[in-house]
Amino acid sequence: MKLLTSRSKVVVQKKMNLMERLYIPAILGGLLVTIRHLFGRKTTIQFPDEKRKFSPVYRGLQVLKRDENGAERCTACGLCALACPAEAITMDAAERKSGEEHLYREEKYASRYEINMLRCIFCGFCEEACPKQAIYLEGEMALSSFFRGNLVYGKDKLLEPVKTVQDKREVVIL
């Protein structure tokens, strides 16, 4: 093999003395680091019992909001899916059946609304793109599962429960 440069690097292997060969200074140095960490601030939290404190600008999991009457706000416009850089949102639009229009404000709704949490980067673009303020990033962040299919959240996991909407209405009325 021909060298392209005239420079060469000289490697000198220093001979180790007796203490270095016994690794006693290295072992003592490691023990000192361990002892220093024993008396430092604890970083482990006991998760189900203790909750981590998040910053005020924390974005949690997505939640599909309901209006004052308890109906879904989402009109399946698809802007959230278009705004998502990770392409994590999938939706199918459907029209309401005749006779249902008087119960809801909009005639279209999302028959299927799914967010693949494995792809989601929690950027908040879906929240900003929604004209009906139907999707928000709030709530707790506890994503864990043994199966990938469990992390594709449908409307059953994303929709805000009706009870919380009614509780908010009662607070507003009082």
Topology record:
Blueprint: H1 18-22, H2 24-38, E1 62-64, H3 79-83, E2 89-95, E3 108-116, H4 125-129, E4 135-137, E5 152-153, H5 155-158, H6 162-173
Antiparallel strand pairs: 1-4, 2-3, 3-5
How would you characterize this protein structure?
The chain has helices at 18-22, 24-38, 79-83, 125-129, 155-158, 162-173, and strands at 62-64, 89-95, 108-116, 135-137, 152-153. The chain has a domain at 62-173: Alpha-Beta Plaits (2-Layer Sandwich), CATH 3.30.70.3270. It has 6 helices and 5 strands; from the N terminus they run ααβαββαββαα. The strands form 2 sheets. A 3-stranded antiparallel beta sheet has the order 2-3-5. A two-stranded antiparallel sheet has the order 1-4. 26% of the residues lie in helices and 14% in strands. It is elongated, with a radius of gyration of 28 Å.
